[in-house]
Amino acid sequence: MRAAVVGHVEWIEFVPVERVPRAGEIIGADESWAEAAGGGAVASVQFSKLADSVHFFTALGADELGRRAKAELEGRGIEVHATFVDQPQRKGFTYLDEGGERTITVIGTKLGPRGNDVSLPWFELSRCDAVYFCAGDADALRNARRARALVATARELGTLERGAVELDALVGSGNDEAEVYRHGDLDPAPKLVVTTSGALGGWAQPGGPFTAAPLDAPFVDAYGAGDCFAAGLAFALAAGLEVPAALEFASRCGAGALTGPGVHAVAVPLESRAD
C-alpha cells in the first residue's frame, strides 16, 4: 500500500496544564515540547504506521522552523515533497488540559502546496492507493484525485468546491462549525460523507450512525484524532473495505491518537477486506 497526504504543517508547542487559564490569569506548567504538527503532519504520521510508503506534499516556510519540520517528518520515515516559500513557517500553541482536551492558537498563514508547482513530483500520486487532502489549492486537489481513494477534510470546502472532483469520502466534525457539510455544498457530491462526534462515534451518509472504538490504553489527549481517523478511512477504502468495516478501522485509528501525547498514531491491523 502506498499512501500520500496533500496538506499543511504547523510547528506546535504543546503545554499540559490543569486547565486553560481564564482571562488575565497566570498558570504554571511542569513541561512543554514542540514538534511538527497540524493536519498534514498528523495524517502523514498515521499513514507511516499503516502503509508501505508515505509521500507528503506540502509547503513550508523558508526559515529554521520550516526546515526543522521537514527533517523531523523525514526522520519518521515520511518522504516529504516540500516547496519552501518566503514567509514564516506557520506555528502555534496548544494547551492540553487535564481532561485531555486541546485548545489551539495558530500563528501565521496556512501554507499548502500548489498543483502547478513543477518542482513537486505530482506524478507519484497516480501510483498511490490512498490520499488524504487537508490543504492546498484546487490544482493540488485535482492531482490528488489520481489516487485510488481520495478522502478530504470538510475544513477545505472552498477549495473542494473549486476543484470539483468526486471524493471517495468527506470527513467533518459535528463539534466544529468550520467543518459542517450540507447536502449540495459540493458538485459532484462525495460518495461518502462522515461526521465525527468524538466519544459518541459519528454519522455516515450513506450508512447511518457508527460507534467510537474503545481505547486500548489510557486516554492522554485529543490532539490529532480527527486527522488520524481520516487517514485511516482513506487507507481502509483503498484496501477495499466496505463502508461499515472502513469506519470501524478509521475509528480505531482515531482512538489510537488519544492514547499518546501530541502527534501520536498507532498501527492498526487491517483484519478484513472486501471480496
Question: How many β strands by DSSP?
Answer: 13
The percent range for strand residues is 25-35%
**Approximate shape:** globular
CA radius of gyration: 18 Å
What fraction, in percent, of the residue positions are helical? Answer: 10-25%
Tell me the strand order in the biggest sheet: 5-4-1-8-9-10-11-12-13
Distinct helical segment count? 6
Mean pLDDT over all positions: 96
Helix and strand run: EEEHEHEEEEHEHEEEEHH
Q: Distance between the terminal alpha carbons, to the nearest Å?
A: 17 Å
Low-pLDDT runs of 5+ residues are none
Question: Which key phrases capture this entry?
Answer:
275 residues; alpha/beta; 4-stranded mixed β-sheet; 24% helix
Structure description:
The chain is of the alpha/beta class. It has helices spanning 38-48, 64-75, 138-144, 157-163, 225-238, 243-257; strands spanning 2-6, 10-16, 33-37, 53-61, 79-85, 91-96, 102-107, 130-133, 149-153, 169-173, 193-196, 202-205, 208-210. It has a 9-stranded mixed β-sheet with strand order 5-4-1-8-9-10-11-12-13, sandwiched between helices. Helix 4 links the parallel strand 9 (149-153) and strand 10 (169-173). Helix 1 (38-48) packs across helix 5 (225-238), helix 3 (138-144) crosses helix 4 and helix 5 packs antiparallel against helix 6 (243-257). The protein is globular.
